[in-house]
């Protein structure tokens, strides 16, 4: 049970969840701002020197940082102590929505292109390259790791009520959010990253990974929608005065998982199928001339063979 539940005397509105108060923004929220500033500084420095840098990638990274900040720096962060919906929104945003946007911004490439390769910058570049080539990175980017992370992040936390222990631990809430962001980036890298990776899964493996994650989220969302109130000890009390019940709160959080949480994975499936088809068409185009030449050669061989057989038959008939 949440011992710090606030006394509520008015109906909860959407505006309450998106309010901004500079004094209540946690460190994780300010970290999103710092990453945004650093990325934009790097992109602008490249443009100022006349060097190319992707505008779509920059927009993607900016949107990722904004989603990250929205989940941690706005009013929803304060209400996560009292509403399952608010907490699930934070988790989905940091684990499922923000990582793809951040990864498609190619922050690794930007780091290597903007960091000086002399002085202290040399050690930053060496550390980044060493991390990219490390055995640990190779293991973490296995597609099965993403599936294990998805199971631990949602069913593992909620079905065992471990989420209540996390919320009751001082600093547990913010630590969980930071961990989910990191795990979301690790799990999403094989599917979304444009930076060079130590391993690149096949299109088939990407399809399997995305499909299994969809099923995990679907099961988790369905349980939240259909479960009775009081499923989680931290959220066992009714949110009286907000015009909602705990059962509605849990059901709404499950609906978020079914919609908001599934959309990025559906995009992965569509994108992967499209890339797979494009790859096959490209291979077929390159293969067609070689296959045609081989077929012509084989047909010429058959023609010569039949011509030889015909001559042999004529010779035997003449004899």
TrEMBL record:
The main place the protein resides is membrane
Localization, per the record, is:
Cell membrane
Looking at the UniProt entry, the stretches that span the membrane are: 27-46, 53-71, 83-103, 136-156, 176-194, 214-235, 255-273
Which top-level group of life is the source organism from?
Answer: Bacteria
GO cellular component terms listed in the entry, alphabetical order:
plasma membrane
Asked if Transmembrane helix is a keyword of the record, the answer is: yes
Entry keyword set: Cell membrane, Membrane, Transmembrane, Transmembrane helix
Entries under InterPro entries matching the protein = Caa3_assmbl_CtaG-rel (IPR019108)
Q: How does it sit in the membrane?
A: Multi-pass membrane protein
Q: Cite a single Pfam family from the UniProt record.
A: Caa3_CtaG
| Name of the featured protein | Cytochrome C oxidase assembly protein CtaG
Please report the organism this UniProt entry assigns to the protein.
Answer: Leucobacter komagatae
């Amino acid at each position: 049970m949440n011992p710090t539940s606030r006394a509520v005397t008015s109906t909860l509105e959407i505006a309450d969840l998106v309010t901004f108060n500079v004094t209540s923004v946690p460190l994780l929220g300010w970290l999103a701002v710092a990453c945004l500033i650093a990325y934009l500084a790097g992109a602008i420095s490249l443009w100022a020197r006349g060097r190319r840098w992707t505008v779509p990638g920059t927009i993607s990274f900016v949107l990722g940082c904004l989603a990250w900040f929205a989940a941690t720096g706005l009013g929803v962060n304060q209400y996560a102590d009292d509403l399952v919906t608010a907490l699930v929104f934070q988790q989905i945003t940091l684990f499922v929505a923000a990582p793809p946007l951040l990864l498609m911004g190619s922050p690794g490439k930007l780091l290597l292109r903007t960091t000086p390769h002399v002085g202290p910058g040399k050690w930053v570049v060496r550390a980044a390259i060493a991390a990219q080539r490390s055995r640990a990175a190779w293991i973490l980017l296995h597609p099965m790791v993403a599936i294990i992370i998805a199971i631990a992040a949602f069913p593992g936390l909620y079905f065992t009520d471990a989420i209540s222990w996390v919320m009751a631990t001082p600093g547990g809430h913010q630590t969980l959010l930071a961990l989910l962001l990191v795990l979301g980036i690790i799990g999403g890298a094989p599917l979304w990253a444009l930076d060079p990776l130590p391993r690149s899964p096949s299109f088939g493996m990407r399809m399997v990974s995305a499909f299994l994650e969809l099923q995990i989220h679907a099961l988790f969302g369905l349980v939240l929608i259909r479960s009775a109130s009081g499923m989680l000890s931290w959220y066992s009390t009714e949110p009286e005065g907000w015009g909602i019940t705990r059962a509605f709160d849990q059901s709404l959080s499950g609906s978020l998982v079914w919609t908001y949480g599934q959309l990025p994975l559906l995009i992965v499936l569509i994108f992967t199928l499209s890339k797979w088809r494009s790859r096959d068409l490209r291979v077929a185009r390159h293969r067609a001339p070689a296959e045609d030449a081989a077929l012509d050669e084989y047909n010429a061989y058959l023609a010569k063979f039949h011509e030889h057989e015909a001559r042999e038959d004529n010779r035997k008939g003449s004899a």
